[in-house]
Amino acid sequence: MPFGTAERLTFFLIRSSLHYRRSREIKTITDLYREWYDGLAGGYLVETLERQWGVKWREDQEERKNFNKRRSIITTINSFAQQHNITIETAANVTEERRSPPNKSLHYLAEHNDQIFE
């Protein structure tokens, strides 16, 4: 193998594995939490993708847009957990309990972060 080919192949394999598309079927805060921190149905943990690859894994415009909306919800939940000295999972469960009766969509909550814990 000529010098540098193995490095290029490794880079190609890494780059091709970066194109991960998150689930569009998520409808609950608890599923959003699980996708972010546990992975859904064998999928990658969004937290790990972000930590290891930064913006590279979400180069697609639609993925970036969806990611930013969902990240705003996760950020709000993390802040709530820190303020109340509870786990992020507990904060996600509290959020889902509060969201369900008024039936606010995740899209709505992403646009109205101030209403997540009302």
UniProtKB/TrEMBL annotation:
It holds the Pfam family GCR1_C. This is Transcription activator GCR1-like domain-containing protein. PANTHER family: PROTEIN MSN1, TRANSCRIPTION FACTOR-LIKE PROTEIN EUC1. One of its GO terms (biological process) is positive regulation of ribosomal protein gene transcription by RNA polymerase II. Coiled coil: none annotated. One of its GO terms (molecular function) is RNA polymerase II cis-regulatory region sequence-specific DNA binding. It comes from Absidia glauca. Residues 20-99 form the Transcription activator GCR1-like domain.
